[in-house]
Amino acid sequence: MSVGRRLAQIGVLGWIFVVPTLAGLFLGRWIDARLSTGIFWSAPFMLIGLVIGGWTAWKWMNAQ
Questions:
Q1: Which of 15, 24, 30, 54 lies in disulfide reach of 45, CB 3.0 to 4.6 Å?
Q2: What pTM does this model have?
Q3: Is residue 4 a contact partner of residue 40, using CB atoms and an 8 Å limit?
Q4: Extents of the domains making up the chain
């Protein structure tokens, strides 16, 4: 496998992990803004996104 392909896989793996985490954070912030709850929902949704990203990355790594 070439160096370029390995670097591409690392990049994809990073995006697979980061996108759900940021999506959870943005969703939590949006709910907090609508309900005026400060940062009450931001942390749980960010953690849910982190878990989903980790699970997705794990499945992707095992499929490769």
A1: 24
A2: 0.82
A3: no
A4: 3-63
For tokens 């009450």, name the residue. Answer: 40
d(CA 30, CA 45): 11
41 within 8 A of 31, measured Cβ to Cβ? yes
Distance of CA 56 to the CA centre of its chain: 9
What tens digit of pLDDT does each residue of 13-49 get? Answer: 889 999 999 999 999 999 999 999 999 999 999 999 9
What's the token pair of residue 17?
């992990």
